[in-house]
Write a sequence for this structure.
């Protein structure tokens, strides 16, 4: 088994998943809060009707488009040699 490639794959999916989870959670929380204040909805309605669907959609969008952006910024690296001294 190629442990370097496995570690690189886990690192890439972990970073993309974490950033997509954090971004989708933050934006859906903010939009749900604004809709709660503006429209005067209750907590359950806002969370179930606005927050959760928005979170799912944003997570899918972020997971699709973030690898290109994170790769350009240097947060994702395909070279497994740079992952640490324990692989030498």
């Amino acid at each position: 088994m190629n442990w370097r490639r496995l570690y690189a794959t886990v690192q890439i999916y972990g970073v993309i998943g974490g950033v997509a989870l954090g971004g989708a959670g933050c934006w859906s929380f903010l939009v749900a809060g604004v809709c709660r204040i503006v429209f005067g909805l209750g907590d359950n309605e806002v969370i179930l009707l606005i927050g959760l669907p928005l979170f799912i959609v944003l997570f899918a969008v972020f997971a699709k488009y973030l690898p290109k952006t994170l790769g350009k910024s240097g947060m994702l690296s395909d070279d497994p040699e740079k992952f640490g001294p324990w692989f030498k």
About this structure: Residues 17 and 51 are 19 Å apart (CA to CA).
